[in-house]
Amino acid sequence: MRQAALLVGCVAALSAACGPATVRPATYSDPEVSCPGGRSAWTLEILDRRAEREGSDKAVAAIRDGIQKSFPGCKWTVGTSAGTDSVVIEIARFRSYLDGGVSWEAAVEWSVRAQTAGGGTLTEFQANEEVSRPNYRGSDNEKESLTEAYQKALERTVKGLRALPANGVFRPPAGTPGTLGNSLDFGGGGP
Questions:
Q1: What are the residues whose beta carbons fall under 8 Å from the beta carbon of 160, sequence distance 6 or more?
Q2: Beta partners for 83?
Q3: Could you give all domains of the chain from N- to C-terminal order, each with its CATH number?
Q4: Which of 22, 72, 99, 137 is most buried as measured by Cβ atoms within 10 A of its Cβ?
């Protein structure tokens, strides 16, 4: 029994030394929505706001990859959102831990804000997922629990971005009724 406890302690110490688990890639593309809001390009800014940012590069890369591959018809620019149509994601939680040797508790949480170049907010929402997974023998439970929470949060994010209306993007060709002024007269008579 004592040897088993030491083995569990050593495995936990070794896994902690390697940093947080990576997650399996995920995408949720829809052929009918190639880019959010009917636009052709966005700036994608992902900010890690966690108190402990261990593995920040892995978390940011996973989210960025998932968003970009879920909207393959979109041109994504990486950088700050100032002065451009942008999607800003702020990570609050992205981790999994062993709770009492019994279960792995994963939590992934981030806020999503899509905004216009002028700073107007198009949408703002939270993606918050928590997963509890038994500590199965012979499985990378940390990675599996974190992947499940990440995939659920990414799917929620993609659905939220897909729901962006295409208002203000469509411009009718010159000379059509939408460009002739504020009043439309189709010659149909009326009062």
A1: 112, 123, 125, 127
A2: none
A3: 40-165 (3.40.50.10610)
A4: 22
